Amino acid sequence: MGRWISAFSLKDLLVSVAKAKKGERIIKDEYNDSGGLYSEGAAFFQHMRFFGLGELEEIQGAKGKYKDSIKAFIPNEIGK
Fold it and tell me: Which residue in 27, 28, 34, 78 is a FRET match for 8, CA 20 to 30 A apart?
């Protein structure tokens, strides 16, 4: 993950996933630390998809390390 992505970002994302219902879209929340994961930390979402924890809704045409490229993460039963 990017240099500026903290453990707090990961914790906030995992809390959001834990609270979500199966199939619910987890979108960027401006009020917690997970926002950076939707741009420079997007590789973490790609790993979650690779390991079968859910699906991604990607932003088509997003360019640049600091632009959001992930619109939503959708956890499945395993991801929950």
Answer: 78
